[in-house]
Design goal:
Blueprint (H helix, E strand, L loop, with lengths): L13 E3 L9 E7 L9 H14 L9 E4 L3 H12 L4 E6 L4 H9 L3 E5 L2 H16 L10 H9 L1 H8 L6 E5 L4 H13 L4 E7 L27 E5 L1 H15 L5 H16 L3 E7 L14
Helix pairs in contact: 1-2, 1-5, 2-3, 5-7, 6-7, 8-9
């Protein structure tokens, strides 16, 4: 069995809530994407974007790659680019945690920190593409972002719930996870409810955004999401802490946000099987105030 690190992307565990869910008629499952080798759900999209670009000869080992990222996609791209011997510059908000920056550099990527948040990072990367001969995967408009989840995340959830999943809950950043998973699950059963999670006005939750219209990801199709709920920064923080203490699941703030909404949903339902994405691991937030 010649398994490489790339072969370990996907097929992440689906574990049942043992403490937080109090409705005996509803099963709540957590999809543990932190178990991917790069530590997040973004390994799936990063691999699909890089592999497709290589296979279609859009890039090769001499291509100068650049990507704007809030963190997890950058780590995934850095890891997979290193495996394929590609050089990449990753542009992040300067507020990014030290762990994220150091992890990308450990994988061999160049990291540029931008003062104007993720929007500024995106503008910087686009300028480099337009003027300096760089290639960007542009995760916000790259179809291979959501297709990765159509090919892997959706089928895994369907398989591991024996086709009985009734609700899927995911925080929304690039929206690749929710778009691809929705597309697959709706093909299997149009009654499956797809629930998106975004921050309340003024809340800052790493990895998820309520985008200004001009920055809305081009891959986002609102018809594929049945309901969108807002979650506050404080709710997301407290739930991330509860996930660690009560469920033994060490995850970031966006996972706390998704879990908050999944639990509210569980309280409202007469019965059902909810799957909520735990998109990364908590260890990349240790220098932040999340677990203080």
């Amino acid at each position: 069995m010649n398994k490489t690190i790339i072969d370990r992307i996907g097929n992440t565990p689906l574990v049942k809530s043992i403490a937080l869910n109090s409705n005996p008629n509803v099963d709540l499952y957590f999809k543990l994407e932190g178990n991917n080798p790069g530590g997040s759900v973004k390994d799936r999209a990063a691999y699909n974007m890089i592999k497709t670009a290589l296979d279609t000869k859009q890039i090769d080992s001499s291509t100068k790659l650049i990507e704007a990222t809030s963190g997890n996609t950058g780590i995934a791209l850095a890891m997979i680019a290193g495996v394929f011997k590609l050089s990449i510059e990753l542009v992040m908000p300067k507020t990014a945690t030290k762990e994220r920056v150091q992890t990308m550099r450990a994988y061999g990527a160049k990291v540029t920190l931008h003062p104007d948040g993720i929007e500024g990072a995106r503008d910087y990367a686009e300028h480099k593409v337009a003027n300096d001969g760089y290639y960007s995967f542009n995760q916000f408009s790259n179809e291979n972002n959501w297709i990765a989840h159509y090919k892997t995340t959706g089928p895994e959830i369907w398989r591991d719930t024996n086709g009985k999943v009734t609700h899927f809950v995911s925080s929304m950043g690039t929206t690749g996870t929710i778009m691809g998973t929705s597309t697959f699950l709706k093909e299997k059963n149009t009654d499956v409810q797809i629930i998106g999670v975004q921050p309340t006005e003024g809340s800052k939750i790493p990895g998820i955004r309520k985008w200004p219209k001009e920055y809305l990801p081009k891959i986002f199709n609102p018809s594929k999401v049945d309901k969108v709920y807002d979650v506050s920064q404080e709710e997301a923080i407290q739930m991330a802490r509860r996930l660690a203490r009560e469920e033994g699941i060490f995850a970031g703030m966006s996972s706390g946000g998704a879990t908050t909404i999944a639990l509210k949903l569980a309280e409202q339902l007469k019965d059902g099987i909810i799957v909520s994405i735990i998109c990364d691991r908590g260890d990349r937030y240790l220098s932040s105030k999340l677990f203080e």
